[in-house]
Design brief:
single chain, 497 residues, alpha/beta, 7-stranded mixed beta sheet, 3-stranded mixed beta sheet, 16 strands
Length: 497
């Protein structure tokens, strides 16, 4: 069975600049109650994939001079891809999604959520709390639980933040779920770093789902020739990490783009994360503080069509990567930027991840489980008892934002083909969280039962045999999988294919 004329899809399509009337043509094939939660996660997930698929169809139709290929999204494929990191197998091995010190922890007055998957974040968390690393994960976790139980959540949050670590106080559930944000509902924004105990972020407002901004001077229009894939011939500089940004660029690679991920050699990526989000892309290392590497980057930028960045606002500006600086050097460029907490307000420059945004936005409290830990999110010894904060059934803020980024870039390419104009697109995990809480409505469940097997495949790779999820992005004639598996992180030459 299929469903069309979906309100969430229409909203996502409009948010990425889509033309009126097209979203009604997107249909969905149900798979039962997938991505089940108190919040409408299934509806958000399929809408973001539907909008991205429609953007791909639109660009392909423009390039080939044909009617739009029909867009039909399978909810089973969406559900599988939104937990792609859980389905991944690397030479038979099951990757570890969350480290032992990442999770919910009781405090003297509530709960905090920590993120310590990367070694430097783990070290900063322990250092901020003056804890010695016991060298044994369970023992260190017990010490952390005991220490946090003596402190207040807001004090933990600010102490760890000051040390460059990651911890947030778990906010109460919003009172206005399903409606427009209530300005009196303090839990709709992260805890203010300026007002202890106050969960409102003064002046920050509710982050929009997408910000579409002008892109400076125009370049030539009509430069894209007919092609078999929507993004064929498009050159993408991928300056993203972890999940959301890499999901976006993984999708562009599926659709034909030449995607080159560029990382600093001083900031290693987790191999498992790269394996999940690296198909179809290449990966190179450049130190932008080194003149020789900076020159190589400038050569890449000179012929790039798209730059996608996933760092905190302003973090890349010293390297000449502020949007206005990029547009000045490359007219017609499309720049997509992602951050955790939004592009204004006191939290805009803070580090963040999907799990932390869930905690600070009230999602974790809304999804609370009685006497249980969260599903798949790295439990700890300090979370026993009732009212344990919960988690969404997927890192839906990450994945959903990733498909919105890809869709926005494809739409910007369509517009550039007409006008030659570049575009600045800004996204945040907090904006997607707000949409989930206040803008997405439940939709009838159809189809089923769900089985992930049809949406998984096996591929040889440099890391060994991989079992991984297929992309859920689909239009009539869409590619089924990527042109090549992930290469080893940082081992490709910094040049276009």
């Amino acid at each position: 069975m299929t469903q069309g004329n979906d309100a969430a899809t229409a909203h996502a399509w409009a948010a990425i600049g889509g033309r009126d009337g097209l979203a009604e043509s997107v249909t969905y094939e149900g798979a039962g109650p997938v991505l089940a939660a108190r919040l409408p996660v299934r509806e958000l997930a399929r809408a973001t994939v539907g909008a991205c698929s429609l953007a791909a169809s639109e660009l392909l139709a423009l390039r080939r001079g044909v009617p739009l290929p029909a867009v039909r999204v399978r909810e089973g494929a969406v559900a599988t891809a939104f937990v792609s990191e859980r389905h991944l197998r690397i030479d038979g091995r099951v990757p570890t999604a969350f480290a032992p010190l990442s999770g919910f922890w009781r405090t003297a007055d509530g709960w905090v959520r920590t993120h310590a998957n990367y070694p430097h974040h783990r070290a900063r968390l322990l250092g901020a709390l003056e804890l010695r690393d016991a060298g044994d994960a369970p023992a260190t976790a017990r010490r952390l639980a005991a220490e946090l139980a003596t402190r207040e959540a807001h004090e933990v949050q600010e102490t760890v933040y000051a040390a460059g670590g990651l911890a947030v106080a778990v906010a109460p559930a919003p009172r206005s779920v399903g409606d427009s944000p209530d300005s009196s509902d303090a839990s709709d924004a992260p805890n203010s770093p300026d007002t202890p105990g106050s969960p409102g972020a003064p002046g920050a407002g509710t982050p929009p789902l997408v910000e579409l901004l002008p892109g400076g001077a125009s370049g030539p229009a009509g430069t894209l020739e007919p092609a078999a894939l929507p993004a064929e011939g498009i050159r993408v500089l991928d300056l993203t990490r972890v999940i959301s940004g890499p999901v976006a660029t993984r999708t562009l690679a599926l659709l034909g783009a030449d995607v080159l991920r560029v990382d600093s050699p001083r900031l290693p990526e987790q191999a498992d994360a790269h394996t999940d989000t690296g198909p179809g892309k290449r990966s190179a290392l450049l130190d932008l503080s080194a003149p020789a590497d900076r020159e190589v980057f400038e050569e890449l930028l000179a012929t790039a069509d798209v730059v996608v960045s996933g760092y905190r606002p302003g973090a890349l500006d010293p390297y000449g990567l502020a949007p206005e600086a990029l547009f000045a050097r490359r007219p017609g460029l499309i720049v997509a930027q992602l951050c955790a907490w939004g592009w204004s307000g006191p939290w805009s420059t803070r580090r963040g991840f999907d799990s932390l945004v869930q905690a600070a936005s009230g999602i974790a409290a809304y999804e609370a489980k009685d006497g249980e830990g969260e599903d798949g999110e790295g439990e700890d010894d300090g979370t026993e008892g009732g009212g344990v904060p919960g988690a969404l059934p997927a890192q839906a803020l990450d994945h959903g934002t990733g498909y919105l980024i890809a869709g926005g870039i494809l739409r910007a390419l369509t517009e550039r083909q007409h006008t030659g104009e570049g575009r600045l697109l800004r996204y945040s995990l907090a904006g997607t969280a707000s949409w989930l809480l206040h803008g997405v409505r439940p939709a009838p469940v159809e189809g089923g039962p769900y089985e992930p097997a049809p949406w998984l495949t096996e591929t040889p790779s440099a890391y060994g045999p991989l079992r991984h999820a297929l992309s859920p992005v689909h239009y009539e004639g869409a590619p089924v999988t990527w042109r090549h598996p992930p290469t080893r992180w940082g081992t490709d030459l910094p040049k276009w294919a």
